[in-house]
Amino acid sequence: MGSRAWWWLLPPALIILSGCAAETNLLRPRGPAAAEIATLWWFMFWIGLAIYILVIVLALIAAARGSRRRASDLPPRLNERMFVIVGGITMPLVVLLATLIFTVITGRAVVAREGTAALQIEVIGYQFWWEVRYPQQGFTTANEIHIPVGEPVEFKIRSADVIHSLWVPELHGKLDLMPHADHFITMEASEPGVYRGLCAEFCGVQHAHMYFLVIAQPRNEWEAWVAQQQQPAVEPATATTQRGLDIYFRTGCANCHAIRGVTESAITGAVGPDLTHLASRRTLGSGMVENVRGNLTQWVVNPHSIKSGVKMPAALLEPNDLEALIDYLESLE
Ligand code: CUA
């Protein structure tokens, strides 16, 4: 024992710290499903902590007693058979059964809202970004999901390539996106806010950088956002943005990125995010960097410097052409 006895504090300290530091925090639930999950987490935490302390205390008693016994040759004070029956069989049974029951109750509560949502959003996972479709409202966007606060929203999710997993820790547990099957998850935000989502299933080199945002807003704000997203892209208003649009076609951007009102006839299928309202989004590269001019330029010129392994190739452009393209992309409010 002695001064090295601090080690037993390490596991609970790590558990406590791991819940506090992150931007996303499943112990700060902002939706009914996440609240159920957080309650279960705390139940398991306190049970685990109590057992941990009990075991450490017994180990310390045993260590202290062991050395005394050698000295005086005392008979054992403990009924060893009872100790095994209570500590080795009864207690684990009770604890595991209680945890099982609590888990089943939580699981039922979490799925209780399935099928109650009026609004459905489709999310398709790609290496390494998220396509977001609003089929009822008739538009597509990427990496940013707006929902009305206080209403259940059904997410219909699938993958375009490998298995991903959709996770917004403050709103719900995680659910896998499969390549050949739709999965459904009903999320609800009880408070307005911006909630960070992430991919929770290893899917390739940029798995850890596959973020998205869920923005929960009051219904009137959400409706205004929808009305704006439903608009086709703005027409180029200046000679420079018109030139930017020409470069967008000439450089091959249009082969992968759709712009509604511009590329319907040219596009064969979505490979990269829809850019119709790119300038209205907060981040670039699926949550990698803030959507500002400097980052947008860097992303176009060398996306791999921001997100190594991304499928978008670098665009080799003359400075004037690059400026015009960025002007055009920035006009896509
Ligand atoms: Cu997508 Cu991990």
Describe this structure in words.
This protein is 38% helix and 18% strand. With 333 residues, it is an alpha+beta fold. The strands form three sheets. A five-stranded mixed sheet has the order 3-2-1-5-8, with no helix packed on it. Strands 4-10-9-6-7 form a five-stranded mixed sheet. A two-stranded antiparallel ribbon has the order 11-12. A hairpin with a 2-residue loop joins strand 1 and strand 2. The longest helix is centred in the N-terminal third of the chain and has 41 residues, at 32-72. It is elongated. It binds dinuclear copper ion. The site of dinuclear copper ion (CUA) has 9 residues, from loops. Dinuclear copper ion binds at residues 125, 128, 164, 199, 201-203, 207, 210.
Distinctive features:
333 residues; alpha+beta; five-stranded mixed sheet; 7 helices; 12 strands; 38% helix; 18% strand; binds dinuclear copper ion
Oligomer: single chain
What is the share of helical residues? 25-40%
Please state the structural category. Answer: alpha+beta
Bound molecules: dinuclear copper ion
Question: Outline, from the CA principal axes?
Answer: elongated
In total, the number of strands is: 12
Report how far apart the termini are.
Answer: 66 Å
Low confidence ranges: none
The helix/strand series, from N terminus to C terminus, equals HHHEEEEEEEEEEHHEEHH
Radius of gyration: 27 Å
Largest sheet: 5 strands, mixed
Averaged pLDDT: 88
State the strand order across the main sheet. Answer: 3-2-1-5-8
Query: Number of DSSP helices?
Result: 7
| Beta strand % | 15-25%
